Amino acid sequence: MNEPQATLHDPDDTDAGSGGGGGKPLRLLVFSGETLTTHPLLPGSHLLIGRAADCQIQVDVPALSRKHAEIRGGPPMTIEDLGSANGTRLRGDKLAEGVRTRLRLGDAIEVGPLTIVVQRDKSQVDVRPRRLWTHGYFEGRLEEECARAETSGVVFTVLRLKLQGTSSPQFVQETLAALLAPTDVVASYGPGEYEVLMSGGNPAPLMERLSAALNQRQAHVLIGAATFGKDGRDPDALFYEANRQVERASASTTPRASGAMPVKGVVVDDPQMRALHALVKKVAAGDISVLLLGETGVGKEVFAEAIHSSSPRAGKPFQKFNCASFTETLLESELFGHEKGAFTGAVKAKVGLIESANGGSVLLDEVGEMPLSTQVKLLRVLEAKEVMRVGDVKARPIDVRFIAATHRDLEAQVAKGNFRQDLFFRLNGISLVIPPLRERTAELESLARHFIGRAAKQFGKSPEPTLTPEALALLQGYGWPGNLRELRNMLERAVLLASDRFIGPDDLPLDKLTATPLIRPPSEPPSVAPDVEGERARVIAALDQHGGNQTLAARALGISRRTMLNRLDAYAIPRPRKGK
Question: Which residue range forms the structural domain that includes residue 474?
Fold first, then answer.
């Protein structure tokens, strides 16, 4: 296996950094604020630095150009500024655009806001089995990386590997040790399955090298990848997307149900969920815009699919779009489309997602993350029922039903000026609040059986394992911050680990399920118990003053209309008709 054993030449071993003779491996240390990442520098390699998704060193900060600079492994090692807005400096001097300049060991390069240092890699050159961490440790590291990425802008990727065929674990670990960077984290997900936490947002080259190296030893590998920001911003969303890609790749050999969260096929034991499903059927029959509210992972996308499939538009396209996955410029191009020459790189016209869903439905997931400038254009689409491509002068009529979803409190975002009130009213024809899993424990057992059955079919386990009462009690006592996504990920891994027909406590992450949550002191002193009768009287008085108009009464009381409706129910006040 020649490629994993490739070494780098030390440029200081010859004059002028010609890159010969030393046989010393090199790496780049990339400093971004308080964050440090490392990248191996191989002979002949080309490392792009910038904000674009296909950059090997990707950092999403405004001061960095999309493709800012390029470092080549040589020999000789060089750096080239690619026409960046904020320039590239080497040894204090600003580099001319498009000119390759030689690098030496120890050089410090200023690439926009980043500082990059060329360093000899002091880690072992010999390929040896790499330490495998536990899944619990991996989850903890992933949570830390998500929190760090929110503030630093440094992008990372989660990989899931599933081996098919016979291959020794030692060979797999040797391959991973040879191809991964020293700072990448590798853990065991289950028998024949691994998970990797790697820096950067372009995992495709590494995935290709891993597949090629393992295939040489008849170890076919299925790989799923999820990048922070593009595919999710929390551990459960990233796990879910990486797992979904692995399952999609194995669908030809192990047919399985859709990767979506369950709506059909699960016994709905919880009263509030039965009422919600009944309301979904009623809402689906009309054409009103729907706003789905709920925490990350509760299944908003599945409810959107249920609304579309139960509506008169069921035979038409259903397009899903995550508003948090694109920059502002790309967001408009993807949603509304563009004409040829509308911007740099627009080599041909493109139909936007909204236009492509004509006659059907569009799900705008994480709509609370949409920039204000795009909100203005979306409002125009909703009001005029027509869409204008970027760079076009003529609008095109559309017939689309909009379903929006968010985990944010949009009313609070409106109050802060982060979301347009007129757009909120347009999207909120009717809002459906999907409760978190911790409030639906009555259906947890049936959901667990559903996920176990699906995972057993996927992994070829027959008969499917049964959840023991002790294991079920652990699941029911947990808070489920990641909701259904977290439950599904946990039970998939339990099916993999179960050695017999039962899934017991030992097959579950006990350290996570039994952990004591951190108790933080309240930021404000506890409020005094409310004056219920006085509050009830004020609500009734406001309704009388405004002729039963609940919106005007809520505004007079300084509360939202939803809060007003909640108080009518809480205080057993009949909902009056306007003017009565």
Answer: 440-513
Contact criterion met (CB below 8 Å) for 239 and 226: yes
Q: How far apart are alpha carbons 481 and 420 in whole angstroms? A: 29
Q: What is the pLDDT of residue 205?
A: 82
Using the predicted structure, report yes or no on whether residue 19 has a pLDDT greater than 60. no
User: What residues pair up with 220 in beta bridges, in sequence order?
Assistant: 164
pLDDT given at position 126: 44
- Binning pLDDT at 50, 70 and 90, where does residue 240 land? confident
Task: Give the position of tokens 């967001």.
Answer: 331
Domain boundary among 66, 86, 120: 120
Asked, for residue 265, whether it belongs to a domain, the answer is no
Estimate the share of the chain in helix, then strand, then coil, as percent rounded to the nearest 5.
35, 20, 40
Nearest Cα to 237, choosing from 335, 142, 364?
A: 142
- Given a contact cutoff of 8 angstroms between Cβ atoms, the answer to whether 341 and 391 are in contact is yes
Distance CA(35)–CA(115), nearest Å, equals 11
pTM for the full predicted model = 0.57
Q: Where in 33-87 does DSSP place strands (E)?
A: 35-41, 46-50, 57-58, 69-72, 78-81
Whether residue 500 lies inside any domain: the answer is: yes
Least reliable range by pLDDT among 130-134, 419-423, 478-482 = 130-134
Task: Quote the CA–CA distance of 76 and 577 in Å, as a whole number.
Answer: 80
State how far the Cα of 64 lies from the Cα of 52, in Å rounded to an integer. Answer: 10
Give how many domains the chain has, as a whole number.
5
| pLDDT at residue 24 in the model | 60
Q: Which of 479, 61, 412 lies closest to 236, judged by CA?
A: 479
In this structure, what CATH number is given to the domain that contains residue 17? 2.60.200.20
Give the span between the Cα atoms of 304 and 155, in whole angstroms: 29
**Other beta carbons less than 10 A from residue 246's beta carbon:** 20
Same domain, 311 and 444: no
Residue 519 burial (CB count, 10 A): 6
- Mean pLDDT for 114-130 is 63
- Cβ–Cβ under 8 Å, residues 159 and 201: no
CA distances from 242 to 94, 155, 426 (A): 41, 16, 34
State the CATH number of the domain containing residue 357. Answer: 3.40.50.300
Give per-residue pLDDT as tens, 521-539. Answer: 443 333 333 455 667 778 8
